[in-house]
């Protein structure tokens, strides 16, 4: 993902509607003094919130979720204006955020420690305690749903939170903060708007105890370095270059449908989007024909929604053009359309090879690059040979091949026969350049707390 194009002077964030280039508005960026004041307020509120009964914290988070539901349509429409994501899809993201907050409101009060076996006349147990002040840095591609996970888990476990939303959707971030904060005590949740400079000041602050980031790998690596220097606990889910491996025993039309969903959903602006495809030679031609038809259908039905801004479109097209220059063949798309906005067509490339840009880097656009392989094992080997380790998908009817994929693919999440499959509450640990730590599910409560071991025994009897 590329840096945002929406920072005007350092004092404000200006956002243009990616659908037509019209002005959405400007949001003031926090000054250095305002950042320091926000951290101080979060620190001042930390002890009282940590000492609040878990049940009361759960009730407050539940009330915040209900308020979010009341304003769901407002946020969805605002999200559509800032990022170009269609209103119905944006509404789905907001409601997913509501569900996540309700989930953590239930899980938080029952988050518990463990008893330990020691002496028969002693008691030993562990106590999970809030870490303190959590900084949540969240992305623009699903701004409410992602933020709800980090904010909900942090708040319900007794932490106070500083939230810096992406500079690409500052209006959504600011309004989300207003809505949620109305249900919480002062200082528990503070929204800080700004670009890279504000983020750097926050991540380097010595009074921040947790750095929780979802976004680009380059930013995540800088945050990890800041955490080493400050001693803050770091949780990060960063970029992915997720592979799809297609076996020779599956229906090629169905496999193409799965590939199209994975590569083109949300215009490819999903961390776990399908970024590179390895298809068995035995089904390659019918698969490519069906995938091209999937792309043509999406391009003909009014086209895809726009990318988040023109800078992102330029980056996507740069990767496509470089790969074509390196020998990839365009099957569909790959042309920047005329007219206003940041639109880009669903694109299919064939004759791709490992060294090409679209196979090495996270494109974050509606691009499906395809490499033909001679065996399922070759597909797995190529899928594994990557610096990222977020997720991968295999399509196969052979249980032995599915088990081989589980053993050999170094990723946090492996999906078999469904590119976006997964149970509610699922969590994973990204690997390599894709990050570290649990970013979702019940395990995120563990990330937001630290464990104290307690040992109690009777003193010796007095003489």
Automatic annotation (TrEMBL):
Query: Which Gene3D superfamilies does this UniProt record tie to the protein?
Result: Aldehyde Dehydrogenase, Chain A, domain 1, Aldehyde Dehydrogenase, Chain A, domain 2
Identify the SUPFAM superfamilies for this entry.
ALDH-like
Which keywords does the record carry? Oxidoreductase
The Aldehyde dehydrogenase domain sits at 11-454
What is the official name of this protein in its record? Answer: Succinate-semialdehyde dehydrogenase
Work out whether the entry's keyword set contains Oxidoreductase: yes
Question: What gene name is given for the protein in this entry?
Answer: gabD
Q: Which organism is it from?
A: Kocuria dechangensis
**What's a Pfam family this protein contains?**
Aldedh
A GO molecular-function annotation: oxidoreductase activity, acting on the aldehyde or oxo group of donors, NAD or NADP as acceptor
Cite the InterPro entries for this sequence. Answer: Ald_DH/histidinol_DH, Ald_DH_C, Ald_DH_N, Aldehyde_DH_dom
